[in-house]
Amino acid sequence: MMDTEHDGGQRAATGLLAGRRIVVTGGSRGLGEHVVRLLLSEGARVATCARKPEPLEALRRSLDSSAGLFVRSLDVTVPELLERFVEDAVSALGGLDGVVACAGGARGRGITEASAEDWAATWQMNVGHVARLIASSTPYLREAGGGSIVVVASVSGWKPGPQAQYGSAKAAQIHMVASLARELAPCGIRVNAVSPGSMLIRGKRWDRMRREDPPAFDRFRTEFPGGELVRPEEVADVIAFLLSDQSRAVTGINLPVDRGQNAPTPEGY
Asked: What is the pLDDT at residue 11?
């Protein structure tokens, strides 16, 4: 387990999130990395975790020495590790003002092929991890006088597509957000979901399709009225907005960031 605090100097108190202390799960690559970099650029201090230590270390090395970043490698589905990370992150950051549940994933294929273990693992990675993250963060947010929680759901949580274990877990996240927004409102804590559409991330599925099978990629682009997939920077901008005071009257919503996408996969449903 890697555990590193990287804070070589006092960060300037400027930007949309100046002085905020924010925990992000799954922040080493893809959308999570874009979120971490944006929050730091907006003046926040950030703690993030991911399963593999190497991408976290690469992220840390790529940042200016004054970036306020705390990192730890862990599996968010392992009991107690996530809770301990939140506790230590709060200690390193000096408190907590915001949370982004970005870690997620899926296991298994179609309904006749996916095992009970595939369903359980997909559920724990998405629903279980988010529930435990929010439960362990709430006392610290309450202590700070309130805060903002953003759950990264998916277009697959409300537009049907394969595989069902992933879509149902994402739908559960969206419902959890609506419920917890009401439960935590008296504490001054806002809870919202962001549902990205299919994102064009370097090295990931759609980027590989674009390079390896251009005709298939062009067909998939027709699921987007404007003909362009979502970029992770666009989703990160929305997450930063929901963490900021500019969205102080917004809670309990599921905000699609999908460019009006129709089917969430090339399968057409």
From this structure: 39
